[in-house]
Design goal:
20% of the residues lie in helices and 23% in strands. It is α+β, with helices and mostly antiparallel strands.
Length: 979
């Protein structure tokens, strides 16, 4: 085990593993020995997502030590209890028979080599915290990956708050975001992966059209025995495998070699390629992640210029050497990348298949802060058979989400193993291509999600770690990195990134097709369903980006790029995603449609079988009614680039019926006319063909060959009339020309949201009514008050009670105005038989009106409640209730002024039993005040004097209509008086 296999042999083993074999054989324990690594040591804490073992020797290393003789040299990585890895630790290791080779920086550890017996003895030293094997790493590269529908995201334009288009016509294509491809490297001589190099020592913001801005390879030394762990920049770092180039094309290829046909998920994003080398081991992948950490650290020049937000990883330990422990160096650096640098770490779940009876998932995909990706079938129906399953009884081992991972084209590094030297294409279908090939695997599903997360970061630069925990079956925190640096790994926290939370909440569960999980769990985040094969299901690019965009708009309310409301969370916007995905047709006037596209012709001849020509076919919808067509292609026939001198002779062929046979060999610059217009709309295929000669003189190109960029502009004219184009048909066109025609496009938009959009999710039925009433409790409260008021207003008894209450309140107000007075003897109450009130004296301001009534009643009781005399001697008012009213009361009578004296008499007349029709009128009852001189009295107060009247009252003289009017007017005036 001391010797490292040659690079070619290791790659062959990797390829063999991709078609069903293992990188290393599964160890079968001899009879009488432990059958699984779990029996070697008991975990200290079973409440974490990854166990931590009491023995400082890693499980996989224990397995290797048991199978190795004492003097076999092994490579290990050692962490110390005091968290240091300086020269004193190197001295310590030398003293105990090991040779230190390298010290890591972000998570301090020493990479060393030594005999097996010396490594086994490290368990006896208190200084040693953790020892792990420098295990070989395999790339997950069985097959390729399908698109996730990101084109629909690219089509949507972001509307302003006023629901209008903006001058910038902003769309989400990954602009301004850098993705790190940590893999076998990137062939940046590929036309889809243009090399625009920068130095980490002097970085600047890349231009919008730049692609690979930094491409470097790890110096592993000679067989990883004398490594310098330096990063060496070069144009092509993927010279053996080709795996990383394929991943890079899926993430962010610009499609130049295919006329935009084979674009990456985030075609406008920038790329960094970090090649871990040819024979990759734990120390190599850790060193790569450490380099990502240093480049993306907040405040560094590289992060300020490049905005590194995603790192995609399509690799992991080979099964069964899957040492799941939180002490592992790589586990800790994954957490630090997520927590400290806000970099989304994406990992392939592995290609070891399984049926849910055991755990086959990549250890690094199971880290809570990372996002583990499973591979579904190309069309999203069913799961692939190779995608690693978790243990169906342990939710901590399940993948997070899925992406299509079977048979699709992506960029090929030509002179490599999987590139076949001259272009692999798809041997299964017989279709060959110089710049693209088809493979499958979780390796290819993973970069689709990495590209999607880049789109989300463009939409929401404020995305960060959430306060939502990973789906774990155990309670408590897992044994992972504590971002505060206070708690040891055994008590670290377990939240996931907001990007992962959005992906899970917007995913589409796969319910049909092959290889579906036999058991599921419906207690995931927000009650959503997940299982051990697909996690939460297929990622949905449109909904995920919509949620991210809404999150940013509600955090940055004025759109200046600064966060205004840090309290807004994913939960506040997740229910808005369907609302902001806006579909609305757009009608434009014009009889002409125009479109443009570009590419790069990079083969010797379009008719050559060796190497096979790349297809530059572009399909455009031609509406029925098209009368004229002109296609103009521009390119440089003579060399213009010193590094890549190329001469070319190109033509533009046309296939009008989509059968693959080109009816027109060269339509470049020609005007084609169609009498009466074409009868039926169809997809026409335009293909750049011809031949070219040239080479690239770059330091390490993957292959020699020409590079001839071209641009095509297509114009068509329409008959006068109205035209409607579907979303796909209208994707490439813009309307120009005269107003003789109207063209309607089916378009899609992202609506702008604001704080008013924060509303609870709609409910239906009885539950919906209760939810609505709970949120809007004040509405039924006000309705209840209105109904109560209406009931009181329509109820006669209630109305009378209210009148009595109102009069009592007036009495209290009147009593409060009594001045100082002496109490005089009782005043005899006035009976109905007494004569009317005498006329006022000369000092009176006005005479008391004659008290009459137009109704008759039997007077039963006269009750004098209170009488006040304050300097007056005349009664001003009496009130008589008509016969129709039962228990009516005459409440008030007042003498306003007398001979220097004022008196107020309050009288209550209760009337019972209404008079029958035609009965005699009842004499009005009035209170009479005796004339008192100011010298004799200041005030008179009489209380509770009751006198029963005769059974029948004397009739009172009828009054004229004029008198009635005068009385009504007076009473109205009286009601306005203020007590």
């Amino acid at each position: 085990m001391r010797r490292i296999p040659a690079a070619g042999l290791l790659i062959l083993l990797m390829v063999f593993s991709s078609v069903g074999g293992w990188l290393l054989p599964v160890y079968e324990a001899p009879e009488g020995t432990a059958e699984s690594s779990q029996q070697i040591a008991e975990p200290v804490d079973e409440e974490g997502s990854l166990p931590t073992y009491s023995d400082p020797i890693d499980i996989a290393l224990k397995h290797v030590l048991r199978e190795s003789s004492d003097n076999v040299q092994l490579q290990v990585i050692i962490q110390f209890e005091d968290g240091s890895a300086g020269e004193e630790k190197h001295v310590f290791l030398r003293q105990h028979g090991l040779l230190p080779l390298h010290s890591t920086r972000v998570v301090p550890a020493v990479y060393a080599t030594g005999p097996a017996f010396a490594i086994a003895e490290l368990v006896n030293y208190e200084e040693v915290k953790w020892v792990e094997w420098n295990s070989p790493i395999e790339f997950y590269m069985n097959q390729t990956v399908d698109t996730i529908g990101a084109r629909n995201v690219w089509d949507r334009e972001i509307l302003s708050k006023e629901r209008t288009t903006t001058v910038e016509h902003i769309r989400i294509r990954g602009d301004g975001v850098t993705i790190v491809v940590l893999d076998s490297g990137i062939d940046a001589t590929h036309p889809d992966l243009d090399y625009n190099p920068q130095s980490p020592a002097n970085p600047s913001k890349p231009a919008a059209g730049d692609k690979v801005i930094y491409n470097a390879k790890l110096d592993q030394g000679s067989g990883s025995t004398t490594p310098t762990f330096a990063w060496i920049p070069m144009q092509n770092t993927d010279t053996t495998s080709g795996h990383g180039t394929h991943v890079a094309g899926t993430v962010a290829g610009n499609g130049d070699a295919s006329a935009d046909d084979k674009l990456g998920v985030a075609p406008n994003a920038w790329l960094i390629g970090l090649s871990m080398g040819e024979a990759v081991f734990t120390i190599d992948e850790y060193s790569a992640l450490e380099h990502v950490f240093e480049l993306s650290a907040p405040g560094t020049a590289t992060q300020e210029a490049w905005n590194i937000r995603v790192v995609t990883n399509s690799w992991g330990p080979g099964f069964p050497f899957d040492s799941a422990d939180s002490n592992d160096l790589t586990v800790q650096i994954i957490d630090k990348l997520s927590w400290d640098n806000n970099v989304a770490v994406i990992f392939a779940n592995g290609n070891d298949g399984g049926d849910g009876s055991d755990d086959r998932s990549n250890i690094f995909a199971k880290v809570p802060s990372a996002i583990g990706i499973a591979a579904a079938n190309r069309n999203g129906v069913g799961m692939s058979d190779f995608s690693s399953r978790g243990d169906q009884s342990d939710i901590t081992t399940w993948p997070d989400v899925s992406a299509p991972g079977v048979d699709i084209w992506s960029a090929a590094a030509r002179a490599t193993m999987i590139g076949g030297g001259t272009g692999a294409g798809d041997f299964g279908s017989g279709e060959l291509d110089y710049y693209y090939l088809s493979i499958s695997g979780t390796s290819m599903a993973t970069p689709h999600v990495a590209g999607l997360v880049a789109l989300m970061f463009q939409a929401a630069p404020s995305m960060r770690m959430s306060n939502v925990d990973e789906d774990l079956s155990e309670e408590g925190d897992p044994n992972l990195h504590d971002p505060t640096g206070i708690a040891p790994p055994a008590t670290a926290s377990r939240p996931i990134h907001e990007a992962e939370l959005i992906l899970k909440l917007t995913a589409d569960r796969i319910t049909t097709g092959e290889n579906i999980a036999t058991s599921v769990n419906s207690s995931g985040i927000n009650g959503r369903t997940l299982d051990y094969a697909q996690g939460y299901g297929m990622v949905n690019a449109e909904r995920a980006v919509a949620a991210a965009l809404a999150l940013q708009q509600l955090r940055d309310t004025d759109g200046d790029g600064q966060i205004d409301d840090y309290e807004v969370e994913v939960w506040d916007v997740i229910n808005l995603t369907e609302e902001i995905l806006f579909e609305h047709p757009v009608t434009r006037s014009g009889d002409q449609l125009k479109t443009l596209w570009q590419g790069e012709f990079a083969v010797f001849s379009s008719g050559s079988d060796f190497p096979p020509a790349s297809s530059h076919r572009k399909e455009i919808w031609i509406p029925a009614g098209t009368t004229r067509m002109v296609a103009d292609m521009s390119y440089q026939p003579l060399p213009t680039n010193i590094l890549c001198p190329t001469g070319a002779n190109l033509r533009l062929a046309l296939d009008k019926d989509g059968d693959g046979v080109y009816e027109e060999d060269n339509v470049n610059g020609l005007e084609l006319t169609f009498q009466g217009g074409v009868e039926v709309g169809a997809w026409w295929g335009y293909d750049v063909q011809g031949n070219a000669v040239g080479t690239c003189l770059t330091p390490n190109p993957s292959t020699t060959g020409p590079r001839s960029p071209y641009d095509v502009e297509l114009n068509i004219w329409l008959e006068p009339g109205d035209y409607t184009l579907t979303r796909n048909a209208s994707r490439d066109w813009i309307v120009t020309g005269l107003d003789s025609s109207e063209v309607t496009f089916e378009k899609s938009w992202y609506l702008h949201v604001d704080a008013k959009s924060l509303a609870i999710e709609d409910s239906t039925g009885l539950q919906g009514m209760f939810d609505w009433m709970q949120e809007n409790w004040w509405v039924p409260f006000i309705v209840a008050i209105l109904l109560l008021v209406l009931f009181i207003g329509l109820n006669e008894n209630t109305r009378n009670s209210f009148v009595e209450w109102r009069l009592e309140r007036r009495l209290e107000a009147g009593e409060s105005e009594i001045f100082e007075a002496e109490i005089l003897p009782e005043v005899t109450p006035i009976h109905s038989s007494q004569s009317p009130v005498p006329a006022a004296t000369a000092k009176s301001r006005r005479a008391a009106p004659e008290l009459t009534t137009s109704s008759a009643a039997t007077v039963e009781l006269v009750e004098v409640e209170t009488a006040e005399v304050v300097n007056a001697e005349e009664v001003v008012e009496a009130e008589v209730v008509e016969a129709e009213v039962v228990n009516a009361e005459v409440v008030n009578a007042e003498v306003v002024e007398g001979d220097g004296v004022t008196a107020e008499v309050i009288t209550v007349v209760e009337v019972e039993s209404p008079a029958e029709e035609g009965s005699e009128e009842v004499e009005a009852v009035a209170a009479d005040a005796e004339e008192v001189t100011p010298e004799e009295v200041e005030a008179v107060e009489v209380e509770n004097v009751e006198t029963e009247s005769d059974d029948e009252a004397e009739a009172v003289d009828d009054t004229s209509d004029d008198d009635d009017e005068e009385l009504d007017a007076f009473l109205a005036d009286f009601e306005d008086d203020d007590f």
